[in-house]
Every structure is written in structure tokens, then in C-alpha cells.
């Protein structure tokens, strides 16, 4: 009850007329403008005709939806809401790239901004508006799920720019008309809009596939010579740690999602009492949506295909803007080892990663020095305090390992950085494939090098539902960059012996650290799918079977880690199987399912070989007599 009282106290202090008293009604400007807009009324008439309903009936329905989703910015309410947001963010220091934000402020003076943000926490919806409000941006209107429209708080939030929208609208065409029209009017009025391109919080730490709904309405808005434009701005928010990750990983193991209600809000607020480090807000490269759609149209890409291309572009820019955190790198090191490590062993794993990150010019959160012993030690201590790691200090020196049942939590933090390592990992598998060619191997016209390219493209196709890859030309350019980092020059010829030499001398080795958890999960699903022969598949039954067998395999160490036993990963494997036509029952599909499982077994085999090579070339750390340390 103390948390309930605290929420009420903070709310009353922040919003003296919003909690316990009635706020003066803010006039819904866009709603009034739409109801007198000829274009909108014509759309209502067309909708009524398509449904064989009266125009007045449809107009009444759409007006109700407009009032339901409409938001305003009441100055007093917004200031109070910002103070309450600061209270919810009390677990963090929010670090902002001020140069990026100041450049964005110049764009804000002349354009409507569409802020597409990554979504790892419920706190994102407080971080972004608070940061922009503190720097005197135009007011931001943030889209949120109607499930968060809680009694009392929801009515206040709508007066601070929060637009609550429904998720399942396929069967409500009038609602979709209302939302499309409302977004168009907001852009016409040069409002700044913010929404999650993922549609919901990630359960794995990495970006989810983009959801096209709001983006589709924005592209409709900018269509036409006289239509308004909007600047799309990717905004990345990443955290050292998150209190809510444990609940999300429990859902990944099959637990039911906790409903968002007052009890949930109180629990969420209570969790924020404990400090967890920093939250980092970074801004990607903005672009004109109207110009981008025009470029795509000139290339013959229109309609849904154009929206998909823009969504993927936003996702790429979000990944590029997301900085590397120390927490992510430490989690990567410990998950890859899957045993206890000393500080020196963690540093030994991190050092080549730090060199690689510098070579690729990826940003590091807070400009942290990934080679600094005290920085790594502090991250280990903080992860131990939050019970993600366990520490043992009764020997000659402290060692740290992933705590029981916390592999998915550590994987969540590692996955915030995994996008920068995937292409390098695929490059390693390509080299391994070439190195395994026998003297009598039948080669394609492009020789051994073409074999490597073909393997890279196969892995890209295998993982395309898991990661965001550039178009094929860009993907090949990135792989050439990776090979140049390994060799020091452009590679025009490759032999099996040379490929093996490059693999052995490469540092870091990443395939086993980055790809094995995903391929292991895919293999579990493929094995269970193959077990069904030619029969049709019930997806829920298959997922339950994969969870059960996956746990068995993890106990038997047939998969490398419990982190692979995740519904999120299994569902992605299902999406791949569906794409390959393997879920419908048919004569002969059992053979295709067996081939799918065999392909994954071979991919896992190769990843494990990379792990063995990494273990062979890693320097041994011989324990030296020393004074006993404490954690």
C-alpha cells in the first residue's frame, strides 16, 4: 500500500487538478477540424456506402473513435506529468547526446517530426517526451496501447500528449478510418509524433520486426504534390539494466503476460526504487518521408512494398544509432563461456571485441572504455547486485557466472548489441565452409570464393526473420569490409588452406557467441517438426513440444545454453518454417522437414567448430599466487 500512497502523493503534487479533481476539458482541435473537413466527410460517406450503412451512423461511430484517441497538451498537466515521469525514472541517470539533440531541434523548427523509437521498456514513453520537453522541442504526441489507458491515469495522460490506440482493428474499418484521418490532421498541423516501430516491447533485447500500421498512415499522409511532409527520426533508448526484463523472460519461457492494471502499475513503480545505472537516448539520421517515398516510386517500388522498405530502413538506422553498453559486452563474454570467469578472463574476451568495435566505428554508451579493468569490474558488480550474475570469492580470486535461470536476462542485455556482430559471425562461417572443401570438390564458376559467398547468402536467408540485413548488394559490401578487417586488403581469391589460416588467426571469433543460441533454438523446432512426418502441424502444440524437449536438450547439453529455450526464438523458427512451406500437411513434406533439420544440424556443427577454434587460440591464463581478493 505504501507504493499506492506514493503514486497518489506524487500524482497530486505533480498534477494538483488532475488527481482527485476534474481537469478542465481540453478542446480536441484535430477532432473539430476533421468533422468540418470535406475530404474527411467524403471518406465517411464512402465508408458508409461500402458497409451499406447510413452516413449519420458511420459519422457517429467515427466521431466516438476520434474522441477516444484524441490527445492534447495542457501546460500544467504536461509539466506535472514530466515530474511524475522523473519519479518513475528514478532508477536511472538519463544520458543524452546533446549534439545530436541540438541538430534535431533545428529540424523541429521547420518540420513535423515522426519519432520512431526502439521499445525495450515501458519507461521509453517517459524518457523521450521528458528529454524533448526539457530541451524546448515542440510538444510530442506519443502513441500507446489502449491497454495502458488505466482509470484516472489514462485521462491525465491524454492531456499530456498520449494517444491511446487499439491494437486489433482488422474487423473495425471505421476505427482505421478514424486513426488514418487523425494522423493526417496531426501532421497537417505540424505536430510531433512518437511511436514504437516494433509495435510493442522486445522480449529478447534486439529489435523486433517492424509493424507497419502507423507508418502506413504516415506514408498515406505525405502522398500527393500538395501533401505535408514529415521528418522520420529513429530514436534509440537503451538501458544498462531493466527491472522488467525478468518478467519478460518468464513470458519467453511460457508464463502468461501480466495484465496492465493498477496492481501492475504499483508493482512496476515499486521496482524503480532500486538504482540500475544509466539510460541512453541517441538519435539516428532523420530523413524526409515524402522524398523517400518519391525515390522508391521512381524505382518502381510502391504500395505495401514501399512501406516495408521504409520500415526496414528505420530499423537499420535504429540499430546503427544504438550504442554498445558495457553490460551487453560483459553479458556476451559470460554467456559465451558458460562458466565462471575472473576479471582477467572477461577482459581477455572483451579486448578483441573492443578492437573490433573501434574498427567498425560503433558508438559506445557513455564513451566507456571497454578495456578498462575498473569499468568491467563495476559492470560485474552491478550485475551481481541485480542477481543476474553470482559471484564466488572464497578462493584465490573472485569469479562470476550467470545465475541459475538468468541466462535469458543476460541474453536480453547481450542482444542489444548483437546486430553489430552478426555479419562478422556469418563471415567466419563462410571461411569455415571454404576451409572444409576437399581437393576433389566440385566448384561453381566463381571458385572457392563463390562457395564462401553462397554460404553467407544461405545464412542470411536462414536468419532473415531474426536479424535486419541490408539488401544483397549492401550485405556483400559489409562482408567485404569484414574480410578486409581480417586480411588487411580486399580478397579476390581464397583457398581452403588460406581460409583456415584466416580463421585460426582471427580475433575475435564471434559465430559461437552470436549465432549459436539462435541456431540451437531453430534446431529444436526443426527436430520437433521433422518428428511429425507428413502430418499437419498445430503451432501451439509444436511450441509446447519444443519447450519440453528443449529443456531436456539443455539439461543434456545437446544445446549450449538454456537461453535457447525461448518461445520468442521458437516463434521466429516457426515463421521461417512457415515461409518455407513446412507447416502444412502434405505428401512429401516430411522429407523437406528432415532436410530443414539436417541443414540446421550442419549449421550448428559449424558454429561449434568456430567455438573450438576460439578455445584453441585463446591465451591460457595461468593462476598466479596472489593475495585473496573480495568481490
**SSE-based structural type:** alpha/beta
Round the mean pLDDT to the nearest integer and report it.
90
CATH class categorisation of the largest domain: Alpha Beta
Strand content is: 5-15%
Low-confidence stretches: 16-27, 620-628
Biggest sheet architecture: 8 strands, mixed
Radius of gyration computed on alpha carbons: 26 Å
For the secondary structure, the number of strands is: 10
Organism: Nocardioides oleivorans
Membrane topology: Peripheral membrane protein
Pfam families: Acyltransferase, GPAT_C
Main location: membrane
How is the topology of this model organized?
Elements: H1 2-14, H2 29-35, H3 38-50, H4 55-69, H5 75-88, E1 92-96, H6 98-108, E2 113-117, H7 124-134, E3 140-145, H8 153-157, E4 162-165, H9 173-188, E5 192-196, H10 213-221, E6 231-239, H11 245-252, H12 262-271, E7 277-283, E8 287-288, H13 289-298, H14 303-321, H15 326-337, H16 343-359, H17 373-385, E9 389-392, E10 399-402, H18 407-415, H19 422-435, H20 447-462, H21 472-487, H22 496-505, H23 511-514, H24 516-530, H25 539-556, H26 567-579, H27 589-617
Parallel strand pairs: 1-7, 2-5, 2-6, 3-4, 3-5
Antiparallel strand pairs: 6-7, 6-8, 9-10
Helix pairs in contact: 1-5, 2-9, 3-4, 3-9, 4-9, 5-7, 9-10, 13-14, 15-16, 15-18, 16-17, 19-20, 19-21, 19-22, 24-25, 24-26, 24-27, 25-26
